[in-house]
Amino acid sequence: MATKRKVLFIIMDQFRADCIDGALAEYVKLPHIRALQKEAVTFSNCFSVTNPCGPSRASIFTGRYAMNHRSVRNGTPLAAGIPNVALEVRKSGYEPLLFGYTDTSRDPRSCHPQDPDLKSEENVLPGFREMVEMRYQESYPWRADLKSKGYDIPDFSRFYHPVPSEPGQPARLDDPAFYRAEDSDTAFLTNRFLSEMAVRADQNWFALLTYIRPHPPLVAPVPYNRMYKGAKLPLPVRMDSPEKEAAVHPFLRAAQIRPSLESIVRGFEGRIDANSDADVQGLRATYLGLASEVDFHIGRAVEFLKKTGQYEETLIILMADHGEMLGDHHMWGKHNVYDQAFRTPLIIRDPGNPAQHGMQVDALVESIDVTPTILDILGGKVPVGMNGFSLKPFLEGKKPEVWRDCVHLELDYGEPDEPTIWQKITGTVLHEANLAIIREERFKLVHFNGPLAPLLYDLENDPNEMENLADDPAHAATLLRLTQKLLSHRMRHADRTLSDVKITPEGMVSFPG
User: CA angle, corner 433, sides to 419 and 372, nearest 5?
Assistant: First the structure.
């Protein structure tokens, strides 16, 4: 490792792609991300191959579709022994440092039944060194930091309740968090990253920095809580009424119920209404405030690299694990089939290819491409079982001779301990409670397992996915073609880690080693 090469891998949680490129871009201030775009390559059509947080990160880190790594829901273990980005970069001499969380649930076969790790879905991906525990459901170091600064910290279940700005009055949606901006979860994580990395400027390093925000609960510190006004934002993309949206498909009827608007913010049970534009827009405004807060701290990280002379030595990857409905289609969260839930930002700055800086790539990209890209740039070998492809040619200004013409997306919406609202409404048992999507540039098919009809959208003529064409005889041929294409795609990308190997009397054939 004589060549100086550092890697800063930043993942934002639930950050919508259209905040950077699309409907919300002109309404949210992201000066530091925009500045990075001018010195990087932006992939404008990147999609998370699965949701929610745990499965999406499992796919990002292993380079595998969910159908192959099978960590298909939050809390579902990731099988031990699957190659991942941390284990692979160790082969190039890096010690992967984790600032934040990977949302990895431990394989119970690898630990004792009484191991406390089996009571948390937010464990560390094998191969990473956890530099600071910063997890959505725990975050003890952050809490200790607040306490040491004199905060009268509430029970963690109330950490994200807005504090009434008028004593004696109920909190409003735009009221602030109890902590100051300089002490927020986002600020704390960035401070720890900068502190730890300050003594590593003379080393090659690999750091994963994962921000919880703008993931709900939607509450922001001053000034981000009122940085945007809901009345000045565009309304969500949606049909005239929730009833019309729900009538499209049983799955979508369930998606209107969970997550509810009340679950997106804390302490407002019975006080907000999903049919109130004021409430909907108020929460959208807070979300954008949190996005701007994350942008500010990304700027601090980039500025640190510049001030310490490491910027031109550092490969920077900025992405999100998945999207957020944010009221579109009268829905919230990411357990969904629409592009808002799956499309994510992806910005990569390779200092070795400055001629491409400022460029935008419109090719269809999947989140599983990121790990193969990192390994390729670092000179490592991409394991056979990874389904993604390296984006290095795009970063070098080359168009690959062969590239995908579609993305493959998945979602499991059942739970093994208790049937979900999706299962109850769709009438699906656990092993039927899943769907697969094949999305081309123009057409998009959503295929449901079990006794459920498909969805078909013409994105060229209906970019907001308002008209389901699955029952339209004029599109029967397209429905059949995409169904066959989806089946072929899944068959072609089934796990082949050992299936191409053959044991013979002369020894092994095709074993990659």
Answer: 120
User: 225-243: per-residue pLDDT in tens?
Assistant: 999 999 999 999 999 999 9
203-232 pLDDT tens trace? 999 999 999 999 999 999 999 999 999 999
Domain boundaries, the chain: 9-405
* DSSP SS3 for 86: helix
Two tokens, residue 296: 């500010």
370: Cβ–Cβ under 8 A, 6 or more apart, which residues? 60, 63, 317, 319, 346, 388, 391
Query: Are 203 and 94 a contacting pair, CB within 8 Å?
Result: no
What is the model's pLDDT at position 1?
A: 41
- Determine how β-strand 129-133 pairs with β-strand 96-100: parallel
Catalytic residue among 19, 46, 53, 406: 53
197 residue type, one letter? M
| Residue 17 structure tokens | 């792609």
Task: Tell me whether residue 111 is one of the annotated catalytic residues.
Answer: no
Q: Cα(404)–Cα(224) distance, rounded to whole angstroms?
A: 40
Q: Find out whether the peptide bond into 451 is cis, omega within 30 degrees of 0.
A: no
The architecture of the domain spanning 9-405 is 3-Layer(aba) Sandwich (3.40)
pTM (whole model) above 0.90: yes
Helix (H, G, I), strand (E, B) or coil at 498: coil
DSSP codes joined into one string, 271-295? T--TT-HHHHHHHHHHHHHHHHHHH
